[in-house]
Specification:
The structure is a homodimer.
Chain A lengths: L1 E5 L7 H11 L3 E5 H5 L5 H11 L2 E8 L7 H21 L3 E5 L10 H17 L3 E5 L10 H11 L4 E6 H5 L16 E6 L9 H7 L11 H11 L4 E4 L11 H25 L28 E8 L4 H9 L3 E5 L5 E6 L2 E6 L9 E9 L2 H10 L3 E2 L12 E4 L5 E6 L24 E11 L4 H12 L2 E2 L3 E5 L2 E9 L6 E6 L15 E7 L2 H10 L9 H11 L3 H9 L3 E5 L2 E7 L6 E10 L9 H18 L1
Parallel strand pairs in A: 1-2, 1-8, 2-3, 3-4, 4-5, 5-6, 6-7, 7-8, 9-12, 13-16, 17-21, 22-25
Antiparallel strand pairs in A: 9-13, 10-11, 11-12, 14-15, 15-16, 17-22, 18-20, 19-20, 20-21, 23-24, 24-25
Helix pairs in contact in A: 1-3, 1-10, 3-4, 4-5, 5-6, 9-10, 10-13
């Protein structure tokens, strides 16, 4: 599949955008006219830069408000078009996007529109240029792709064809199956965009909230299967207007974009095979001209192998882990790294190159069937491999960097609770006895607001984690958006949070801390033990327990137990949830959870209590300090 | 009018919110239950704090999902309600908001809902508590206020009344005139919120995008006139869920909120008088129980008196002004301040307490009929007065601080082009001859994103400037939102811009610069003169002129003139617009504009060209530097 992207998706100057697209591996680009107009570079210089970067210039866009007009206006429009054709010749671009008329159309007549497009096609032919006519979802008279196709058919000119844009088609709820009826040679261009479910007017939705395929709610795999079946084999290009991308570094947006296309290729390939027809298939099924790349298939991760906390001074973290009942298994034989564990929960404390760093979650390990295949898949999906120096006799771990820079290690699942690398700490990673803590339940990672959609796409495409419904939780500094990414059996749960900016908070506003939650078979017993060991619990206000009583009518005994241990409680139709939080050290804290029956949530009603208590603590800490 | 505000409108802890409300002058507050639950303070402590701050506690809210349920669930709900009544007694709050059932209602029967509310009322009566039943716009069976009122009537209990919320009523397009039919003694509470026009699902609209009255598109004055006519005389309270307010310093949000209520009181008073019935009117019209405060009426400003640039080193600004043909009239007799002018355009360069400051627009002066009345009005609307030290024999200028800290001076309009204060510079402020520059056309002020709605409300309420339709302009760092505030005759034009955050721009991203635009009778002549004087024009790319030719078919001569002088051009059905920009120094630049015929815009199609050129310059400046 030939990949392309519109320059309007990215921030920066035209030159910066082009360099970012080339670096991310795109085959070509669409030049958004405005990007050229504001550029100090001549068309010839842009053409030269594209050649140097090995980028094809696939489309010049958009040409607006052409057809369905009076003869007088048509002549003006033809003058304007011809100036652009001459410009395109200088750029070396042979296809122009012509959007259905939004503003100036006054003649609602397909024959008139077609004859005007034919006249445009005749002029274009003189310059060797093809016109790709696209129905905008808010076009005045022409707003669906089948209508646009009828006009293209009526125009009946070899230089007039169609441009299909998934946003304009899917946002109107149209059935993309009709794409298969369009002759492939009349599909001059294809643009893809996804979008979240929003009941917003379609113009605002389109201009601000488009996202890359896989980041929204549209069925782009379905769209692509129809496109492949139509026989189309031209560029598949991203055209995504998004307020966040416009403000984000263009290099990383381009990588995010490329990842989305690669993943879409794979899913399209799988969908076609499922429906009995893969490209190049020899078994009697039709072979399609478009070749689709595939990726190593990997199973979902089966558990957390470890969590890593990086810290300059790790004393406070060690104390918390000790109080929670974890045990230091040993120190790495060559590095300033410790392994702490309890049951199947392992925490690595890493002091390498950490001088002055406040404690923070820096890495996590996932158990996977085939670490090499999983890492290869992630890297093909444009994840950055992580290089950590290791000695010749040490376990070689596969790792990639997530969008928020957390390192994701892909570890071999042994099935027996041992971990191969633990021997470097003089341990087999298995703890005697029956510790109260059984494993890591979930890890909570805060995300910069600009990279949230990118992070969700990353975890879904590389690791096959599935996004659950997202939630918003009030805090004293604003709403915190929370998105859980989960393996199907719940063995791996990552909670991604976007913290509010709190830019003008009078009291500062520390980074939103991250945390590791341990699963526990008896949280009351563990909390008592932790209290004996002097744990600094996150305090829970008395008003919370009064409300709990009003909501759940718990017995007085139970309420006293909860309150005396700063335990939080939730209940739903699936079961009960008891949990507590430690104080925050640096940028990290810990949680211990007990899930009763089939409770599958995270105590969301309690999150505001935690956030307010942490806010109070941060304030008084700053006030005292 | 008794003013109140829900604690959910503000950021911070409950204690911080209460202090901010008291400081802004509110009579009372609604306690949002969640704010109490997460507070470490007991109900008795909150009650004590309210007494200390002289705030009444007007409402406890919300109680959810009560009515329209099975008998079994009703008993649970009554248990939950009674726990809250006991809590309210401890707080000393006598009114509870009961929202129509969203989640658990299964019985769509008004008689059942009414009888269940009556039973709740009977229990509430034992605690001396009144229930204010409110139809949520997304209530399962009850979602309009007239329906809720029918249920209240059926319930027929003295402790069961209604709560009216302007958002829930106006967002559904309901006619608020029906409010007048409700007996005043059954209206237990009133909540106000405004909202922008958005085609968004009503729940998201309500939870994220509510704004204070006057900041949105709802007709809250109409709503209030119906309310006053109903005879209601209880608290009028703000309940505004807004993602920005949640992140903004609570003290300033509270002031913004209070301003909106004061202005609404005035407009309601005017509207009632216009319709022949003012409260307390003796002329035979009905007198209403609610007393509405009024403000000094002021006419719109009639022009710019001056713009002030503050700078540590003012050499570069002086050079630009000289090159544009302004003339230094003199230095202030006691302060390091200069007056520059041309025609009716005056620029003050202020070096007081400016050591190390990059040049920036710091103040502007407006010509008004009655400076004292205008300043008094602004201060009553919670604007901060500005105190500048002045000598006994200097003109006393009235000034207030705008939300972005720009100082707004209210100057006496003389009508003859002189300004009283100019004599302190040894000048009468009148320039001989016929300079090309005639006056200040507009001033462009960048706004922090958190204060945009506040700024619009500020300029509209204090100075009677009118907001024009807002626009969004693409820049290499994201979309810039632009909102012009204008006097009716166009003599005063302020353009407010919110710059994108560009948080992660690889190339940094300076503050979005502000500018002063001078009106000119011959921009070509002025540009030529400026070129002779060595002006550093903001460069305009050649590609722009090619596009201009394609769009407007200008003559080659004209195009050459424009291009040789870096002039930008626009044309619409009202006329033509020619303008150019200077280089940016510090955080300020200048523009010169010529309006031909009745052109009334700002060359919006050219704004992306300016932004891209400034971005290029800032980049290369940083690269070179």
């Amino acid at each position: 599949m030939r990949t392309s992207i519109a320059t309007v998706c990215l921030s920066g100057t035209l030159e910066e955008k082009m360099r970012a697209c080339a670096a991310a591996g795109f085959d070509g680009i669409e030049i958004f006219e405005q990007d050229l107009i504001v550029s100090p570079h001549s068309p010839e210089e842009i053409r030269g830069l594209a050649a140097e970067l090995d980028l094809s210039l696939d489309l010049f866009q958009p040409f607006r408000d052409f057809e369905g007009v009076t003869e007088e206006l048509l002549l003006e429009n033809l003058y304007r078009a011809e100036a652009k054709f001459a410009l395109m010749n200088r750029l070396g671009i042979d296809t122009m996007l012509v959007c259905s008329n939004v503003a100036t159309a006054t003649v609602d007549d397909d024959d008139v529109a077609a004859s005007q497009l034919r006249r445009m096609g005749e002029v274009a032919a003189g310059y060797g240029i093809r016109l790709a006519y696209e129905a905008l979802a808010w076009g005045k008279y022409v707003n669906d792709f089948e209508h646009a196709q009828r006009i293209v058919d009526l125009a009946d000119h070899p230089n007039v064809g169609t441009c299909l844009d998934s946003f304009h088609i899917l946002s109107r709820g149209a059935d993309p199956a009709g794409i298969e009826k369009i002759p492939a040679e009349k599909i001059f261009f294809v643009q893809l965009a996804d979008a979240p479910e929003l009941s917003l007017d379609v113009l605002s939705w389109s201009r601000h909230y488009r996202v890359f395929p896989g980041e929204g709610a549209f069925d782009l795999t379905g769209f692509m299967t129809h496109l492949v079946r139509s026989g189309y084999n031209g560029p598949v290009s991203l055209e995504v207007f998004n307020d966040v991308f416009r403000q984000t570094a263009e290099e990383r947006t381009a990588v995010d974009a490329m990842r989305s296309l690669i993943w879409l290729e794979e899913r399209t390939s799988v969908a076609l095979a499922d429906h009995g027809g893969a490209p190049g298939n020899d078994g009697g099924f039709p072979a399609y001209p478009m070749e689709l790349a595939t990726l190593p298939a990997v199973a979902q991760p089966t558990g957390f192998n470890f969590a890593e906390v990086k810290a300059g001074d790790s004393g406070a973290v060690e104390e918390l882990l000790f109080q929670l009942g974890l045990h230091c298994e040993g120190r790495h034989r060559t590095k300033p790294v410790q392994l702490w564990s309890a049951g199947g929960a392992r925490v690595i404390i890493n002091q390498q190159q950490a001088r002055g760093l406040a404690p923070a979650v820096s890495a996590l390990g996932l158990d996977v069937q085939d670490p090499l295949a999983a890492a290869s898949r992630a890297v093909q999906l444009k994840a950055q491999p992580v290089s950590r120096r290791s000695q010749a006799d040490e376990a070689v771990l596969q790792a990639v960097s997530a969008p928020d820079s957390t390192e994701i290690f892909l570890c071999e699942a042994t099935g027996d609770g041992t971990v191969a690398w633990a021997e470097e700490f003089g341990s087999d990673g298995v703890v005697e006895g029956e510790p109260l803590i059984t494993h890591i339940d979930h890890i909570n990672l805060s995300q910069p607001w600009q990279h949230f959609d990118e992070a969700v796409l990353f975890y879904e495409s590389t690791l096959s984690l599935v996004p659950r419904a997202s939630q918003e939780v009030p805090s004293p500094m604003g709403l915190v958006r929370s998105q859980v990414m989960c393996s199907s059996d719940g063995a791996v749960r990552l909670a991604l949070n976007i913290a509010p900016m709190g830019l003008e908070q009078p009291h500062g506003g520390a980074d939103y801390p991250q945390h590791v939650a341990f699963a526990c078979r008896d949280v009351v017993a563990l909390a008592r033990q932790a209290r004996q060991r002097g744990l600094d619990f996150l305090p829970v206000p008395a008003n919370y327990y009064e409300d709990l009583q009003a909501r759940f009518r718990l017995g007085d005994d139970m309420l006293d137990v909860l309150q005396s241990l700063n335990l939080l409680y939730d209940r739903d139709e699936d079961g009960e949830f008891l949990h507590f939080y430690t104080a925050t050290v640096g940028n990290v804290f810990f949680e211990v959870v007990e899930r009763r029956a089939r409770y599958d949530g995270y105590g969301a009603p309690n999150a505001p209590v935690r956030l307010a208590s942490q806010y109070q603590r941060a304030r008084s800490g700053r006030r005292d300090g």
